[in-house]
Structure formats: C-alpha cells, structure tokens
Design a protein that fits this description.
Rossmann fold; homodimer; 3 domains; Alpha-Beta Plaits; 34% helix; alpha/beta; 6-stranded parallel sheet; 423 residues
C-alpha cells in the first residue's frame, strides 16, 4: 500500500515536492494538504501535480492526526504553531519529515525523544543545505568516524552576496540585486546576521559532534560590515571572504563555535563555493576532511531532500539514532585575525594601534595599506598571529576610543590550511 | 547485546577497522578473524586493538557460518574465493559488510537478491571512494531525485599521478614515485588502465542511475599515454587532465559510459581534486549537481566506511532497496575531443590531418602548436567540435597510417561546463 502523506504548506517547497513526487515511481500519495488560503493555492501552477482526490484544508489539525495520513511533511518553517502540530502528529503515531531548521535546532531534542518514544521517525535532511545530502552523509556514511569539526557555507544568500562582492561591488548594491532576484528577503537580517546559519550549524553539531548546542549561544557576526575594500585586502593575502559556520570539539570536550564573515585561503575547498551554493566540510579523526557541496536552497533541491526522506520511509528503513549531550558553546576561538581600520590619517596611528595590540598581548603578523585612498578616510589592515577572540575584542574596544578612528574596526577570523580542530 | 563481527582479512583495512572500532562507543565486538597467516598477523602493530578472546583462524569457513557471528565484514578483495564465502554467510543469515568493489560490480545483483531473500543486509559503502560517503549520500539523500549522470575521480592512484604531472613531470617518473610511496602497485594496470575505476563506476550506476552495467562493456582508456606535453596544451585550453569515470542516462534510456583521461576545465569542481583524493559529482533533474570529495582510499578512511555500515546495523536500521534494470553500455559518447599528434615535420601535415577529419565529418575547433620542439619529433594538438567517439576513432585509424605520424595519436574527451546529460 502506498505511503500516505499529509503535506503542511504548499509554497515553493511544498509545490515542488508535489511535482517531484508526481514524476517519481515511489509508492507515495498525498492525501491531505494544509495551507491557509486553499483557494489561492488550488490555482497554483503546480497544483496540477496534486491528485484530484487529495483533500485541501486550511485547518492543520485535519492533517496532523488524520487516519489517512502515515507521514506528515512540514515545509512551512518557524517554531510556532509548527511545534505543536508536529508534536500532535508524533503523538498520533505519524512519521514526520520536515525542512524546518529552526524547529530542529531549538526543539530537536524534545521532538527526537518523542518520536523515539512513539516508535516513529523524525527525518529532517532538508533542514540543512537543501539538496546537498550532508545529513545522510554524516548519519549513514561517517557515523564510524569521530568528527572533530564542521565548517560550512550554510547560507546561500550570504554566499551569493559575498561571492558577487569578489568582483568589486559594494555590499548594499549586491544586497539589492539579491533581493530583486528573490535570493534575499526584504528584511535580510536572518540571513546576513547569521541567525539562519547558526541554527543549521547546531543541527549539524548534534549529528556530527554529538553535541546539543543552544543556537542563541553561538556568536553570530553580520556580513553587512564587510566592504569591497576587504576583498581587495583579502586577495592580497591569498584569500576571499565567506560567511563561515564553524563548530569544533575542543581538547576538553567543549565546543567552540562561531558564525560570521571569515577570510578563507583560495586553495581551501571552502573557497570554491560560488553563488547560492552551500558547502560543508567535516573533519574526522580517521577519515580526514570530507567535502559536500551543491544547491542549498530553492524549491527543487529542498524538495529532493524531503522526497528522499519520504522514499526512505517507504523502504521500511529504520533510523540511526545518536546520543548527543548538552554542551555549552564557547565562542572564544583562538585563530589569526584580520583587522580593518578606517582612520583619519595623522602621524603615530600605527604606533597607537600597535601599542594597544601589544598591551593585549597580541602579535602583529602583517600590516597592509593600499595606495590611492584619501588620508581623510584611510583604510588599512592588520593581521595578527593566533590569539583568542576575547583578547582581540578588548583590544578593539580600546582602539575604538582613539580619536583618529572613524568607525569601529572590522574583525574577521582567518582560516588557515593547517587549521587544527583544537589548540 | 553487542553485534558480533566476523572479520575476513587483517591487512591495512582490517587492522584499521579493529583500531577504529576500539576507539568507538558502538556496541560491536570482533569475535572471529580470518587471515591466511594467523601467527604473522597476531604480531601486527594493530593486533593490540583486537580483544584477547577473539578467535583467529586461517579457515574462512570457521568465520562465515559461525554461531557467534552476526555480521561478516570482508576486507580482502577479489572475486574468488570471496564470492563463495559471502554467499555462505548470507545463506547462513548473516549480514555482510564489504569493501569489495569488484565483487559488487560483477556479482552485486545476485548477492543483493540473496540478501533480500534471506532478510539480511548487504552493505558496501566502502566499495567506492573509501571514506567519502557517496553511496550513503545517493541512497539516503538523493533517492528522491532522478540522477541523470555521475562523473567521478574514482581512482586515487591515477589522481596522484595526473595531479603530480601538472607541474611538468613525466608519467614514468611519477609512477615510480607513486610506487615508492605505496600509492601504486608493482603492476599498476588495474589502476592506470581504468579497470578499478570502471568497477566503481558500475557500483554507483546501479544506485544512482538504477542501471545494472557490465563493467567489461565500459570502455577504459589508459592514462599511461598522457605526457607532460598534454598538460602544457591542456593549460593553454584552460584545462587540466584527470582520469574521469562517467556514466549518463541517454535520452532513450540507454547509458553512455567511459573511463579514461579527459580534459577538465579548471573552473569545474572535478578539477579541484588533488593527490590521492576522490570526487564524485552527481547531476540530478531536480537537485542539480552535488559534489562529494575526500580521501578515497587508505586504511583509516576505508575503515570509517566499513565501521559506519556496521554502526548502521547496530541501530537496527533497515536497508533502502532500489530496483535496477540491466542496461547495455554505449561507449560512443558525443563530445568535443582533444587529439595530440607526434609527427616528423614536413609541409602539408595540417592539410592531411584536416582532410581526414573532414572526410569523417569532424569539425576542427582549434589547432595548437607550441614553439621550441624539434621538427623531427613535433607535438601538436587539434581540438574538435562535438563528435561521436566512433567517428573520431575511425579518423584516427586512418591517420595512424600517414607516413609522418611517429606514434598513434592520443585522443581525450573534453568535458565542458555546459555539459548536458544527453545530447
């Protein structure tokens, strides 16, 4: 008998799921669809992929506990009211397949426990990196390794913006373009300020590092302070700039994690991703680095991940369960850093800055200054030897008070090819 | 109760498996180990990872049907006698985990059917790309897509040789180096002539394209005819040379497949792999291109793949089964090609070659000739517009008879960024 799907949401992903399912040979049937505005959705171009006998409803409770539903597929997003609906579905003995990263990041452990208690499955391959099978790769292919670090490009919007800025464009202009292409929201904060990426990072940390992290504890730095100048300096350093999400097991079992713009050496795989692509690099004690890359978002790629979860359910396959422990996040990463200043030029600036760094026990690695900028508005860059972020933040706080400093310095972590999981 | 493993083979992979298992928290125990020379293996550096109560034997039948074995892990390789042993294990109701690409490529369908009949699992994530979870990614993460093509760097030895040749070294010298480093066998034929890669390609084709291919039908071209000159010309064309394994669904449901050295544009992900790394790119109708990359061979990465399969068994997870159909291979790919000639220079050579190509209805795209070579031994290169390999082979057969041709021309397919799955 065909597996009966109750679909919550008929937007971009939901309608693409109906399309992908219609062209598949899987024994799967959509019996019910919830959407707030049923009439509008019934005239959606992809409604033709929905069987005539499917029941449409604007009442989600008519889907999550219905007798003719074996698996609830949720592609709406957000915590409330979704959490309650999916709890009800699991309580009623339905499998749940969801693309909801916020829900899994913030409420995953409770939902996973409930699913286990009820003997049903909670699958969420689509919650991270859309069509890139990072979660199946980690769960089924790398469970035998001990993964010590995950680094990723987990937000396609940021990757689009930063890879476009490589050719010299300014942030504000590229953001506008991203918005007009539908890659960025009118309020882009969730993407550019790192909240979306850190939720995904926490979903991965549970599986890869067996660590339950609170997303709110992961420091997220905005990419909106990165400017075209930084790409020019990054290039001189053999690097580019990407929004990187990174979590690593510390020597003593803690997890260090951060999300934000970082300098990435051009020869590292993580610098390869362009446009809206996603990439994840896992580092294992035995298997070394494994790279996953592809389309992280969009209706079709996300629908592929959802459909693959549903297909796995039709095969009667069980679910690999990991034990993850609650672990506090330490955002104080030790690494070399990039510092960019905009100053009003006058004698003694380098001496002042070098003085503050020395007071904070931070060694300068290089000092870069390109010609041709106005002394009234002069950008220059200092790179440091590895130091703790906290050391740097207090140095920067002290520097911001210097009279020649026209704006707060931009601080970015620098990744290095010989980066080690712990230090 | 712990899952009890009977291990066949205590070489590089088998001993690494014991090590990985010893450091894991999985409920898994090695109860029996088969190896021909038990006494020698017991003094192996990694024998310390084997529990004292484990039974060592030089008789495989004492492992494959033993009562205290739940899963047989095979890391020896080859068809005979392994096939019989694993049949016996499956017959006796044991799960089987194997790293044996030849066995799965040539006898996979029979063994898969036998496992299904007996209600046990046959897992072989380690058979392709070692520690890179390509098989789990395809099986659990991309089953919802319709994959139309797989392209891969599936042989680490060839990738080591060809990426080393990028800096100007000749094939014979790099091969020697690879042999001294243990990356290439004394008889390197299985690697450099493409037999290893095409077995892996057929294992992937079954899962990704749902196509049972006979590996012997996949044309395999040796990399041993590639010389330093070809890298110089490839560079001029914005390319490098890699051993590529490629299979794609044709418009009419047939599969076109080939293994051999190909020109790869530097901006394509498949050009990123260096040293002994493996890479696989799947192209899906809905999800687009997905890239997997990492360490394809070696004791630890392969042991991670084996251990992950064993770990999945401990979780009580079932197995996703695909239906694959027997399909004939068509090696006659339509693509642009690179032709490199070594000639004794005289007037009219270009005209003769162009004439033969025209007779065979092949259009020339570019003609490249670097300065500084002796006219007695002159290399030059022609690239063609897309044509069938068969057209080109007959043209080349005609050219080989030309009096100025000092050796048979080298023919390599050229990949293009806008490559489409069918043509």
């Amino acid at each position: 008998m065909a597996l009966r799907v109750g679909l919550l949401g008929f937007g971009t992903v939901g309608s693409s799921f109906a399309e992908v399912l219609a062209t598949s040979e899987a024994e799967v049937r959509i019996t019910r669809i919830f959407n707030r505005d049923v009439e509008r959705k019934k005239s959606h171009a992809k409604a033709k992929f929905v069987p005539a006998e499917t029941i449409w409803t604007s009442d989600a409770t008519e889907v999550v506990t219905a007798d003719d539903v074996d698996v609830v597929v949720e592609v709406i997003g957000g915590l409330d009211p979704i959490e309650g609906w999916l709890q009800a579905a699991l309580q009623a003995g339905k499998h749940v397949v969801t693309a909801n990263k916020q829900l899994i990041a913030y409420r995953g452990s409770e939902l996973i426990a409930l699913a286990a208690e009820k003997g049903v499955q909670l699958r969420y391959n689509a919650a991270v990196a859309g069509g890139v099978p990072v979660i199946p790769g980690i769960v089924s292919g790398l469970s035998g390794d001990r993964i010590t670090r995950i680094s990723g490009i987990l937000n396609g919007t940021c990757n689009f913006i930063l890879s476009a800025m490589e050719s010299g464009a300014e942030y504000a202009d590229v953001l506008k373009k991203a918005q007009s292409l539908g890659y960025a929201e009118a309020n882009p904060s969730a993407d550019v300020d790192g909240f979306d990426a850190r939720a995904k990072l926490c979903v991965l940390a549970r599986l890869a590092l067996r660590a339950e992290l609170n997303p709110d504890e992961v420091p997220a730095q905005t990419i909106s302070s990165v400017s075209a100048i930084d790409f020019a300096y990054a290039k001189e350093l053999g690097c580019t700039v990407r929004q990187i999400s990174r979590a690593e097991r510390d020597g003593d079992g803690a997890v260090r994690a951060r999300v934000g713009p970082m300098l990435v050496p051009k020869e590292m795989p993580i610098a390869w991703s362009h446009d809206t692509q996603n990439m994840v690099v896992t580092s294992g004690l035995f298997g070394g680095d494994v790279v996953f890359s592809g389309h992280g978002a969009g209706g079709h790629p996300t629908a592929v991940a959802v459909m693959s979860d549903v297909f796995t359910l039709t095969s009667g396959s069980g679910q690999v369960r990991f034990v993850a422990a609650k672990i506090e996040v330490n955002g104080d990463v030790r690494a070399p850093h990039y510092l960019r200043f905009i100053v009003k030029d006058k004698p003694g600036i380098v001496a002042s800055i070098a003085g503050v760094l020395a007071e904070h026990d931070i060694n300068i690695d290089a000092l870069l200054q390109h010609r041709g900028h106005s002394p009234e508005n002069l950008p220059f860059v200092v790179t440091t030897e590895p130091c703790l972020r906290s050391q740097l933040e207090s140095a920067v706080a002290a520097m911001t008070r210097l009279d020649f400093m026209l704006e707060p310095p931009l601080v970015m972590q620098m990744l290095t090819s010989d980066d080690h999981p712990t230090d």
